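Subject: Isopropylmalate dehydrogenase-like domain-containing protein structure
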Amino acid sequence: MWISLVKIMSGSVMSEVLQRLSYATKRVEAKNPVVEMDGDEMTRIIWAKIKESLIFPYVKVECLYFDLGLPHRDQTNDQVTIDAAHAILKHNVGIKCATITPDEQRVEGLYSLRTL
């Protein structure tokens, strides 16, 4: 996408557009915190990149972090899920990344790895 944008535009117009895309002169400030629920596997990596490049440069927001990855849900006996839900009720907004549903096959694989 960025390469085609660079090819189409030239000179000062291109420079101005790239500057606007890269830097915000003034970040929008969110009044309330956002409940952030991290997921499993690649969603963690993708979500981190989205925050780094598309959200935090433009929005000043406090994130209340909850790790909803399968290992952490298992460690907390799903209490982290309940805590995240209560935080959403309190703050009225949340962002949730995709998580793994622990079906029988995944649970068996997870527990067999732990016994090694």
